[in-house]
Design a protein that fits this description.
Number of helices: 2
Strand order of the largest sheet: 1-2
CATH class of one domain: Few Secondary Structures
Order of helices and strands: HEEH
Distance between the termini: 75 Å
Shape: elongated
Largest sheet: 2 strands, antiparallel
């Protein structure tokens, strides 16, 4: 009798992510199946605009984004990396 075969799906990691999978990214990938189960209903609307469609390019955090100049960094990551990017603090 042959062993059962399983279909394994590999999800692409988000760009610039230093964590294996942010929880919301993994849930979004699992929820995008064809079958509309109870869990898939919460991520059923398209995320093309608005606060829910954007995240920090380093840590995938959605709150406190700095979008000016196309940075797309949360404020914590911006403070850590501002000198490396080339920003100088003037007082």
């Amino acid at each position: 009798m042959p062993l059962a075969t399983f279909k394994v799906t590999v999800f692409a990691r988000p760009r610039f992510a230093n964590k294996p999978y942010p929880r919301r990214q993994l849930f979004r990938a699992v929820a995008s199946t064809k079958k509309m189960t109870h869990d898939a209903v919460w991520f059923s609307r398209p995320r093309k605009f608005g606060k829910g469609s954007r995240q920090c390019r380093l840590c995938a955090h959605q709150a406190g984004l700095i979008r000016k100049y196309g940075l797309d960094l949360c404020r914590q990551c911006f403070r850590e990396n501002s000198a490396a990017i080339g920003f100088v603090k003037n007082r």
